[in-house]
Amino acid sequence: MSGADAAGTMLDAARAWLAQDPDELTRAELTAIVDAAADGDEAASAELADRFGARLQFGTAGLRGRLGAGSNRMNRVLVSQAAAGFAAYLREKAAPGTTPLVVVGYDGRRNSDVFARDSAELFAGAGLRAVLLPRMLPTPVLAFAVRHLDAAAGVMVTASHNPPDDNGYKVYLGGADAGSQIVSPADAEIAAHIDRVAATSLVPDLARAAYEIADESLISAYVAATAAVAPATAGAAGMNWVYTAMHGVGSETLHAILDLAGYPRPRVVEAQIAPDGRFPTVAFPNPEEPGAMDLAFETARAVGADFVIANDPDADRLAVALPDETAPGGWRRLTGNEIGLLLGWRAAARAGERGETGSLACSLVSSPGLQTVAEHYGLDFHATLTGFKWISRAPGILYGFEEALGYLVNPETVRDKDGISAAVAILGMIADARERGESLADLLRGFQETFGFFASGQVSLRVDDLSVIGRIMSALRQAPPARVGAVAVTGIDDLLTGAGGVPASDVLRLWLEDGSRLIVRPSGTEPKLKAYLDVRGSSAADAQERLAALDAATRTLLL
């Protein structure tokens, strides 16, 4: 196809899109680009090619992308097609004579409420019973609602901790899926229905109908269930701590839970406590990103806090920080593995006290320390692919986590990561420690003394050309390294064909002679090759030395 023909095709696609777009803002945005491209503006033509040369693909993570007009953006046309396609899937799977219930939630990002209302109207128009949460709420509340209402499915409109210009569409299934996120083959089946809608129907022609608004009793039930995770003990009295919602939706729900559970309210980061889809104080609203918690640390220094807790914008992740004289600014954010192992210790100890059986689970790139905890308490252990769609499905799960600040502490209530219930669990651990005259730092030391000195790290290679990642993975498979630095490789698991009961995935896991582990995989969300490093030492210092050596050797291997 010639350049002129390609440009004409993009113009045709854009004009067809304009004809069915119900959003005044994106229509105006796209009209300006179309007019410029029609006048020969090369930049406008390139912009059209970016917006219409591909389509956001629906997968196990649902949809996620930049806001804007076009098939390769998040907008009302794309979301309407997704809702209509998902409705067709649910009708196809429903038992004869039944009316599936779908519950829809949304966070504080731009257009989240609009996408949620569109979806609810379209679900109802397709003959489903559609229930919309009463206001912007955390993702875990939606995940809870799917189970609590015995819904066939749930949709959460959120892009979690993505950049401010993004939004997304996250899907859960009830019934046999027990309120977990979708996995294959449901993703492909839903995507096929969405594609069929996009090819055969115009958005203005899709049937719409009235939906229900969920009763406040649903929110109260989540608050009660989460407060019960760790009711405050005497050690909670006098807690001096700081909380940030990172411009997200966690604050209202968390504060209601704190009041019911009996914890003192925190000092809040005022500039970040109210929902604001512009995210004016953070370029990347992810607690893991450098600088994202600077305002929280500033507040903590001002009030002499003992610890800091942060949620990401949709409150499904949790970050924790503590004073550390050796850290810049005197505060250090704990890694996801450090928090995950502490919460795993809590879950295993509670299971032991209650005589419960079951399993602890984590993603295969998270710390192997959780397996040590499970074995110590006689529990089963499962390493899964990354993502809570897998972790939540671990047989007999009592607790699960992944190193990217995600924790599942109450699987009977929420089958997804939940940064609010995890915050309550951490508060409970800190309160119990305070009763013993100990601190959060003492809890970390206690874990090491009980289970060993684990340390974890990451090496990331960002690329402009995705083929570079494929070439590196192929080279590692074709010529597996015999050593990583000075340490011999004793075994390699290639998960591309599946291994150890884990579904096939583009992951290489290397076991080293000194007990260290190196995992290499392409990122599922960014143009990165990621390496996950795990070591175990005889002391904290020894573990850090081993980690530094493995980090240097990994960079040499990959870079």
TrEMBL record:
Assigned protein family: Belongs to the phosphohexose mutase family.
CDD domains xref list: PGM2 (cd05799)
Ranges of residues in domain Alpha-D-phosphohexomutase alpha/beta/alpha: 56-197, 222-324, 336-446
Biological process terms in GO annotation: carbohydrate metabolic process; purine ribonucleoside salvage
Keywords in alphabetical order: Isomerase, Magnesium, Metal-binding, Phosphoprotein
Pfam families tied to this protein: PGM_PMM_I, PGM_PMM_II, PGM_PMM_III, PGM_PMM_IV
Domain (Alpha-D-phosphohexomutase C-terminal) ranges: 505-544
Cross-referenced PROSITE patterns: PGM_PMM (PS00710)
Cofactor(s) essential for the protein: Mg(2+)
PANTHER family given in the database record: PHOSPHOGLUCOMUTASE 2B-RELATED, PHOSPHOMANNOMUTASE 45A
Superkingdom: Bacteria
Keyword set includes DNA-binding: no
Enzyme class, spelled out: isomerase
Protein name: Putative phosphomannomutase
EC annotation from Swiss-Prot or TrEMBL: 5.4.2.8
Gene Ontology molecular functions: magnesium ion binding; phosphomannomutase activity; phosphopentomutase activity
InterPro entries associated with the record: A-D-PHexomutase_a/b/a-I, A-D-PHexomutase_a/b/a-I/II/III, A-D-PHexomutase_a/b/a-II, A-D-PHexomutase_a/b/a-III, A-D-PHexomutase_C, A-D-PHexomutase_C_sf, A-D-PHexomutase_CS, Alpha-D-phosphohexomutase_SF
Source organism of this protein record: Microbacterium laevaniformans
